[in-house]
Batch of 2 targets.
Target 1
Amino acid sequence: MGDSPSTASQPQKRSKARTIEQHFLNMRYPRLEVQTVMETDLTSDSLNAILFGNSKSDAPSSIPRAVGLAPGYTSAGKLTVIAVAVKARVLLIQFRSEVKKGTDVVVAARQLLHDELLCHDGNALFAFDMGPLAMALYLDHGLYVRNAIDVQSACTCKGNRDPANAVEFAIGTTSYKVYRANVTDAFSSSLWDPSKPPSTTSVALKAWLAAWLPEVADMEERLREVQPIDTKGMSELKLKPIAQFARSDYQLASKKSIATSHEFTSVGTSDNKHTFRSTRFQNHFRNTNNAVRMTVVDAIGAQYNVQGRASEADGRRGVVKAEGVIMEGKAVVSVTTIGQDGPTLAEQQKAATILRMLQDQSELLDNPFLRTIWPDGKEVVWPTLSASLSTEAPSLACSQPLNHSQRGAVEQMLSSTDASRITMVQGPPGTGKTTVIAAFVQSAVEAGKRGIWLMAQSNVAVKNIAEKLAKVQFENWRLLVSKDFHMDWHEHLYGQISTKVIRSDEFRSPTALQEMQDCQVVLCTLSMLAHPHLARFTFKVPIKTVVIDEASQIAVADYIAPLQSFPTIEKLCFIGDDKQLPPYGQEDIEELLSIFEIPHLRLEALFLDTQYRMPPQLGEFISDAVYDGQLSSNPDHPITGLACFFVDVNGATEKRNGTSWENPLERAAVLQIAARFQEDSESFRIITPYDAQRSTIENDLKAAGLSWENKCFNVDSFQGNEDDYIIISLVRSDGLGFLEDLRRTNVMLTRCKKGMFICTSWDFLVDGKGANSLVGRLAASCGDDAWLSMEDLAEGNF
């Protein structure tokens, strides 16, 4: 930062000091003095009062002062406060939310922070998760750090960065004891709410803990060995992309719910531990040790809340230990886990890669694939091809016929020229993306290629590819799936291919390793590449050619860690569709681009131009409305006439349900159609944009004695799936909401093979706000004959 007016002579405006007591460790420690100050009221004296105390002799001048830092963020993920701690003093510095007012004062305040705190040669900065904090300081406030130490880099065991584990590791064999629950609660959220004392206390205590750890025996030396983060000394060319990756990661993490309401049935109580059986995977119990709030009803009908801890979880089973209350004889009405889920292994690996870059241990653009994605003007040097690859593409050797566009895609995927090291294939709904993948696998293996790994974002998409390989009678493959997804939840999805499945809890078994001995093709999710025991398999089947389905749903930055971790990769094939679901969170985080949104790569994408799923009536509309008329429909499709119907649910009204929406009258219509399909033994699924509606439709199906398991989905969970008939509940009757999202609406409308029934109302979709939506335009193209009344449903006239 450049020269700016000094703030040393400004009057100091601080809140009244308060004191708090640390409750992380079982030791006596002076109460901490905590004060809060706006950055524009910060003075050199107030900073020195924290750093030096009254005597300015807390540390010899030759030894850097240990300064603890901790962040507080807004709900939008912007750094709004930073806690600065030394010894028993903590200063909470709040940043101005509006920098346009008093700009000179803000510049002067940040120069003071830069000069006397963040980049002062006499300070050693310590923080848990220093990487994201350093990036937030840079992106949000233009501030740099020097000699900034990431605490967990010195005190982690086997890569576990959980703060409670890190503190236990740091204190080692000392007499101190860590109160894990208190540490976990404090670090479970970094949201800052100055109106709530627990919020301010949590930030202050985290900064104090970071400042205290260097005092522990052996920790000073351990911390000294950690490569510091020095953003002041980094080039902007390197710093900016890393900061954007780190910011998008933090914003994604902040989108995780801070409270999870569980859907469950009670099993029973023993030793004050209550056992539950989850009924929905998305909110099942997890091994988090987070606080849990249970609403219970006792024997006399009194209802009240009971606090507890999530103590065990396995499959559908979850155990909560109540605190200070006898659970015998009490009925549990609701259970809510408080606190966000921890990072996944893939998220941890990505964060570790970004941290290594910040610590100057890893260059972002060393990898030729990353250099191609983010060109830096330097020559891209590709790795030497293995003996199993050649620049001459092998001939096709597939068991299913391919159309012209599919054949072109497979040939490009088989090519190993430098120009085709990254191959892009855009596949609209029903165009045979898994057919292309299967044809590539058969042809590549026939040509002698090895080390083929097939991946996708979701377990269901990977399963679909596996089923396609089985259908074309290709046998030499294995599918890796997480125990969390498979056990007790989705075994039924793998019934036809169960002998090929290796579950994550079996990775270390000799049997699993033996199964991989001569394996030619491996299937897994992209996130599985972060599994700590995957190296046992990659040693047997090195990752050389990677095919990624659903690539339009994956943020391009998610490839950084895998490409850095597996330098054996020689070829990348991305298959997806940027007209369908985007990376999760993209609507709020503009930096979250998929590979299909990198302009110079998107231009090279091959287009699969014929869809085989939808009846032509629907396929032709989607082609014109979404794909600029480039998508043809199978001329031999068995359904040639009217296939899309709209149910006029007169009087249907949207109702808010928490953060979601529902529509009771539309549910009644859905139930009538579902009952008719089940009676006629037709295969069908139900889709709705809102989870509240999905949940209540599922309950309605149960109550009516209809099939309900694996029947009702929200839109995001159904991409890649299809069924003969699709029933849709739009829910909205006034606002557009979900229907403004073209990509998600495209997914919703393109799942049927024979027919689709959309429950809505004429007033909304024809005469109202829905008329200009993609669904409204579909209704207009289908005409009046496509409309059914509730009387038609009651009489079975459909």
Target 2
Amino acid sequence: MTVLKTSLRNFLAHKGRMALSAVAVLLSVGFVTGTLVFTDTMNTTFDKLFQATSSNVTVSAKGSSDTGETTSRTGKPPVMPASVLGEIRRAPGVRSAEGTVFSTSVTVVDGHNDKLSPTSGAPTIVGNWNHNDARTMKITSGTAPKDAGQVMLDADTAKKHHLGLGDDIGVITALGTHHARVSGIATFTVTNPGAAIFYLETKTAQQTLVGRTGVYTNVNVTAAKGVTDARLKKDVSAALGGGYKVQTAKEVADANQKDVESFLNVMKYAMLGFAGIAFLVGIFLIINTFSMLVAQRTREIGLMRAIGSSRRQVNRSVLVEALLLGVIGSALGVGAGVGIAVGLMKLMGSMGMHLSTDDLTVAWTTPALGLLLGVVVTVLAAYLPARRAGKVSPMAALRDAGAPADARAGIVRAVIGLVLTGAGTASLYVAGTADKATGGSAWLGLGVVLTLIGFVVIGPLLASGLIRVLGAVILRVFGPVGRMAERNALRNPRRTGATGAALMIGLALVACLSVVGSSMVASATDQLDKTVGTDFIIQEDHGQVINPQAVKAVKATPGLARVTEYRSTVADYTTPDGRTLKDTDITAADPTYARDLRKKTVAGNLEDAYRPDSMSVHEKFAKAHGIHLGSKITVAFKDGSTAHLTVRAVTSSDEVIDQGAMYTSIATLAKYVPADKMPLDQLVFATAKDGQQAAAYKALKQALHAYPQYTVRDQTDYKKALKDQIGQLLNMIYGLLALAIIVAILGVVNTLALSVVERTREIGLMRAIGLSRRQLRRMIRLESVVIAVFGALLGLGLGMGWGATAQKLLALEGLKVLDIPWPTIITVFVASAFVGLFAALVPAFRAGRMNVLNAIATD
């Protein structure tokens, strides 16, 4: 009880200092809790949606996926004859069955030819209005489509694009463009996942999406009373006799949920990873806080020991303070986490994915995990300061002595830090000289961990050296005030090292990712300059195929010297060594592609691969299967017959663009794949006549105005798009890393605030002998800046080392250009100095307001 009272008194006596540490715990726990609540809520939302939209049994056409996704390389969904519907209705246990047709390989535009697709990445779905959809949507305006000239859409899409009854809608498919006017608007009765949904009359949907009537993509089957889904599936399967995909409602829901979870898990674990980094940074803050509090209470602890308190009691007192900090910070963090989750839901709503707070899911394990993590991390971080407090001898009460210094421990720490850093550097060297990226990545991971830990452990030693260098470069120009700031930073190298290390971690990751991202862009740009021999690239940015009408418009564009089509399909390969490789991609292109992409060959000429019944393979594939020029490969096309193709070229496996591609001609593909099964183009390349590039570029954009889903890019546009894509990813990562940097800033603030308290008497004496308030504040600000710059130097240096090593591994995959983004590095370095200034504002202000006489009288 005495220990608890003492701990509580000390905790409340330093509540301002504890609050900063509690904020670090709160942020870290809040991020973990918010991530878990958000992903659980997403899972609940989609689980309800899938359960509501699934019939007892769903019959799908052969070739459709488990999730019902109908996108295909032909641009048309896989279908089954309408006669299947009668067979299903005659099966035992069937109460009703309804045929549906829908596709996601579509683009929908309004009367101004603007796309109506969601910006969140959710699909655009066009299908026929049916009873199954009526379970989750209610017509709130107008009527369902009754003829070819009518279309109905969901209310969210109508609201977002300001559409109403009578407005013109264009549905663009592989078969052409179908125009209709809005006859009705339907509102979701469940949470809208963000998709844009359009309904046509059944025959119109069949004709528009498939090109003929009398076919369905799915049949929704409802069970008779008392018939289980499993029994119904068995009976329907028996009636159909195979050749179709038959799934129960649970199987469809599980498949859809698995698809959603695969996306959510990537986001979930990425966010938890950044929360872990914030926790790591928070550990330094807590260690520094309790170390300084212990140092400031040396005399008090000595007196406690003198009147009979044992080492264990003193140790326990500090740990109880940490426990209080962990419980309070974690409890607040759990509450903040729910707020973060709601904020993420609102953000998703602004992107078009509407999530209701009615589905907010807070499993009991989430707050329990948050509390456990926060408390355990806080108590573990306080263990070393608590142990140090227990070592204070009773004699310390009789003199003004800090916590016992242990020179031997400092030497041991330095040796361990040097060993870890050396081992990490050696691991990075092995990674950088590896022959295979897979093997080198393990060494890279080990090197990153060891060098990070090594720099943390060796921080005090590095602080002693680097602070002197920084002092000579930055602080000496400020005269005596600068020299005092330098001495203050050097007074406790362990504290300075820990404070700098907290900032180092976040900046090291920023520097590493900047180097990797910049090198990827530079390498891809270099490859484009060296290998791409065409002027323009036409593609759909979300991976959809290019319909024949758009290709025809490209070919009719004036000012073009040549147009190259590029498509791919899947086949089973049987190689000369007798092995069969299932579902392997093969790329089919026009012969002019050999000029559009100057691909390096190690044997033969790529032009020859486009001869009849010929193909190319890449170098690694050739070596793995004993293939050489003239070898025959049996290629069984998934949607066609079997061909025996002769290898006419072996391409390099080191290039980035089309890495690992195996080529044949479109003419060869057409020989073995029926016309109705032929894949459509994924890309189209266009080359302008000499001197007509600018005019051709403008003409191409005009020719494809009716097809807004396709983008025309010249090489400059393509490089910019690549840079923007990687830049957006890095900006998102930097945003998440900002959490760790915020915690690190709190650490600098806390260190300075406690340092001011620790030096109260010293500050009073300096003020008494003539140091002005402005000089005092400047001294504290300069100390903060030099600590922040110290951490930035460590972090940026370490991160650039990691990034350069990672680029060596990427070079094995063809990304051979190392590019250091100096503008980013310099900006981060300068920003670190401003971080130091910002962190010192409150401590410097409080120090300047200190009463001189009271400060001198402080014991």
